[in-house]
User: Which sequence fits this backbone?
């Protein structure tokens, strides 16, 4: 009988030791689980990187195309939409006359593959090298060639566009000799024409290939999820950006939070704190610039 207490005293340290061993085993299991989860996330992250950054690395303009995924509205816009200007420029001058703006449900993924040229001609605008251009619209996509040509002409003739540099001019023509064509086409046809030049537009974006500025009708009719300005201003951005490549301008980045985004910035992929803007120049002739980017 006297030995019983000693047995009880000896069993208490044993139980404590067993509990410590069990805690160590649980901690080891948690550490192994954490490592497994982190490794899995790393693998998934690597896969996402391949998906988002795959392809030929080309983007729009200057014999390149916009081929990266387009983020959703507000996905990377740092500027407060309630304080951002609804126009793409601080200038009081009006935007080009609007043309009918069908809803996104009216975007036709595939047209007839043939094009109709606008029959209108315009006077030369600007100085220096005057480039002659035509405007063509794919048949069967519900966009009027004459209205499209009038809008392109108004954009390139605007005092905030490229003629302000004093070195470049433009003239709308319907036939004869021309330097380039602005073609508005369905996503399917845009992909085919851009693809023939080795560019991947993924049914979403524009490209500049050969003598053609290819405008994806989806962008012409719906704008960009990253651009809070009007549809007419976004059309001005498309034209100014692509024609900017034509006359030798490369891509530019955001110059700083709260400042206007350059027209040569790929605004469809996010504004990085800049405000949406469609024009290369302000109304007073100041070039809206940013740091050069690939």
Assistant:
């Amino acid at each position: 009988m006297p030995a019983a207490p000693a047995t009880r005293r000896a069993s208490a340290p044993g139980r404590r030791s067993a509990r410590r061993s069990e805690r160590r085993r649980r901690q080891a299991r948690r550490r192994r689980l954490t490592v497994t989860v982190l490794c899995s996330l790393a693998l998934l992250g690597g896969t996402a990187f391949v998906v988002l950054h795959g392809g030929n690395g080309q983007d729009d303009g200057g014999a390149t195309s916009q081929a990266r995924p387009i983020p959703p509205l507000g996905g990377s816009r740092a500027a407060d939409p309630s304080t951002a200007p609804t126009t793409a420029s601080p200038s009081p001058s009006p935007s080009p006359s609007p043309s009918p703006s069908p809803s996104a449900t009216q975007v036709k993924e595939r047209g007839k593959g043939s094009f109709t040229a606008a029959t209108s001609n315009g006077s030369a605008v600007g100085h220096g090298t005057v480039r002659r251009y035509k405007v063509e619209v794919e048949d069967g996509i519900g966009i009027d060639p004459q209205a499209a040509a009038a809008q392109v002409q108004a954009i390139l003739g605007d005092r905030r566009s490229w003629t302000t540099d004093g070195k470049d001019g433009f003239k709308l023509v319907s036939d004869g000799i021309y330097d380039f064509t602005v073609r508005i086409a369905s996503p399917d046809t845009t992909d085919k024409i851009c693809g023939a030049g080795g560019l991947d537009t993924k049914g979403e974006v524009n490209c500049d290939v050969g003598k053609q500025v290819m405008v994806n009708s989806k962008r012409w009719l719906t704008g960009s999820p990253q651009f809070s300005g009007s549809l007419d201003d976004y059309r001005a951005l498309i034209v100014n950006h692509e024609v900017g490549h034509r006359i030798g301008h490369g891509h530019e980045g955001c110059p700083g939070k709260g400042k206007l985004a350059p027209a040569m910035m790929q605004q469809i992929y996010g504004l990085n704190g800049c405000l949406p803007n469609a024009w290369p120049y302000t109304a007073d002739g100041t070039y809206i610039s940013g740091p050069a980017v690939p």
Observations:
- Strands lie at 115-117, 125-126, 129-138, 168-172, 180-185, 207-209, 212-216.
- Helices lie at 3-53, 145-157, 187-196, 217-222, 231-246.
- Residues 1-10, 33-67, 72-105 have pLDDT under 50 and may be disordered.
